[in-house]
Amino acid sequence: MSTNLRKHDFNTFLTALVASLLGNPAQAAWEVNMPVGVTDASAKIFDLHMLIFWVCVVIAVIVFSAMIYCLVAFRKSKGAVPATFSHSTTAEIVWTVIPVLILVAMAVPAAQTLVEIDDTRDTEMTIKITGYQWKWQYEYVGEDVSFYSNLAASSNETRQLRSGIDPFQEDNYLLDVDRPLVVPADTKIRYLITSNDVIHAWWVPDFAVKKDAIPGFINEGWFRVNEPGVYRGQCAELCGKDHGFMPVVVEVLPREEFTAWLAGQQGGAAVASAATAR
After folding, report:
1. H/E run at residue 247
2. Is the pTM of this model over 0.85?
3. Nearest CA to 246 among 81, 85, 136, 162?
4. Is pLDDT of 274 > 50?
5. Which residue has the higher pLDDT, 12 or 171?
6. Is the dihedral of CA 241, 246, 247, 248 positive or negative?
7. Could you say which of 9, 14, 23, 214 is the most buried, measured as most Cβ atoms within 10 Å of its Cβ?
8. Answer CATH for 40-117 from 3.30.9, 1.10.287, 3.40.1350, 2.30.30
9. Is the distance from CB of 170 to CB of 154 less than 8 angstroms?
10. How does DSSP classify residue 2?
């Protein structure tokens, strides 16, 4: 009776688990693969990732199929007799040459993609990014526009101990800022990144961008976003007690709207400068 009861409980648990997984709408957005992204570089990285993945799948199928076949076909119970030779030069050449050819075939497109990722020629604008504990500073080089980007006040209030606010009711909890980085769409943007204190990392998955911000050094990279929208990331380097509270938000505008936004920022900077001088 006890055994049957345990089996019934186990079957009930499995049924409920499967039903919850299939019936939960949130599972539709749950993905285990990397995102395709919204830049040409991210699309190429995704294609390269899938190419290598399927090459590994094919290799695994071939190797494990051969192993299983040998285990079944040449088992002792069927009268299989161990070989008496110590090695085979032909076999050693084959299992050395084939992996080398496979690695070379994978290395060529990988090297091409890496070269393109680091090619900052023909950029149309430059932005300097500086990491602080625990915020970002963005400076539009040559445009007299600079500002800090901090964790949004609503997220900062929610994260406080005993705030009484449900984080699940907060939109983009810990992934929103007071001032996002604003850039134009379909524009090759070069960024220079450094740090004012400790090592940080500027990471936006949809751009396939993750670059370290190191004090005393300036790293560079580029991105071109094809689709206007709001894209979110985080600091990806453990940088202190509030490391989890310095998100990255990039707002991508059509070129005309960005030009108007930049002109407004420059006008505000000029007014502030004049007020300071007075």
Report:
1. strand 247-253
2. no
3. 136
4. no
5. 171
6. negative
7. 214
8. 1.10.287
9. yes
10. H
